[in-house]
């Protein structure tokens, strides 16, 4: 008998609130997103009062990363980053909450307030912060 979780995966869900397709590269549909990142985003959603999270950018292939002007060592390239918008929250509010989630507090957190989104990643090697 197929489990509920397996049925959800078969329907394209990677977690309770996110679909695999949300994290796929828009130019080639390749998706190598890290589950650790997705788990962190689920926790972020709960800590944001269950506010919906829109993924603007997840995994990127090299070609797409170049098109969007991504950094040559972008964490999107290895599937450990996502640029997100949390419904009803300013990017700086998202940062305040993400800082209290271990997987993000030890990773990368960037704000792009002019564009209205937050970058979160689950990098190793210590935290990185930036903003605009």
Could you describe the 3D structure shown?
It is a single chain. The protein has helices at 4-10, 35-47, 62-67, 91-98, 102-105, and strands at residues 53-57, 81-86, 108-112, 117-121, 128-131. Helices cover 29% and strands 19% of the residues. The model has no long low-confidence stretch (mean pLDDT 93). It has a single domain (21-131), classed as Muramoyl-pentapeptide Carboxypeptidase, domain 2 (2-Layer Sandwich), CATH 3.30.1380. The chain contains 5 helices and 5 strands; from the N terminus they run ααβαβααβββ. The longest helix is centred in the first third of the chain and has 13 residues, at 35-47. By secondary structure, it is of the alpha+beta class. The radius of gyration is 14 Å and the shape is globular.
Helix-strand layout with pairing:
Layout: H1 4-10, H2 35-47, E1 53-57, H3 62-67, E2 81-86, H4 91-98, H5 102-105, E3 108-112, E4 117-121, E5 128-131
Parallel strand pairs: 3-5
Antiparallel strand pairs: 1-2, 2-4, 3-4
Helix run count:
5
CATH topology: Muramoyl-pentapeptide Carboxypeptidase, domain 2
Determine the N-to-C terminus distance: 51 Å
Please give the CATH architecture.
2-Layer Sandwich
**Structural class per helix/strand content?**
alpha+beta
Order of helices and strands: HHEHEHHEEE
Low-confidence stretches: none
The geometry reads as globular
The CATH class turns out to be Alpha Beta
What's the average pLDDT?
Answer: 93
Instruction: Kindly report the spatial arrangement of strands forming the biggest sheet.
Output: 1-2-4-3-5
Number of domains: 1
Helix residue percentage: 25-40%
Major sheet details: 5 strands, mixed
Radius of gyration: 14 Å
């Amino acid at each position: 008998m197929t489990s509920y979780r397996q049925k959800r995966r078969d329907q394209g869900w990677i977690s309770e609130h996110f679909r695999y397709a949300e994290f796929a590269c828009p130019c080639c549909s390749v998706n190598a997103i890290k589950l650790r990142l997705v788990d962190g985003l689920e926790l972020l959603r709960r800590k944001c009062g269950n506010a919906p999270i829109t993924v603007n950018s997840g995994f990127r292939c090299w070609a797409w990363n170049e098109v969007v002007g991504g950094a040559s060592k972008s964490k999107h390239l290895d599937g450990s980053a996502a640029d997100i918008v949390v419904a009803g929250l300013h990017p700086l509010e998202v940062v305040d909450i993400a800082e209290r989630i271990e997987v993000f507090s030890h990773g990368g957190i960037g704000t792009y307030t002019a564009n209205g989104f937050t970058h979160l990643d689950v990098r190793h090697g210590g935290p990185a912060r930036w903003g605009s």
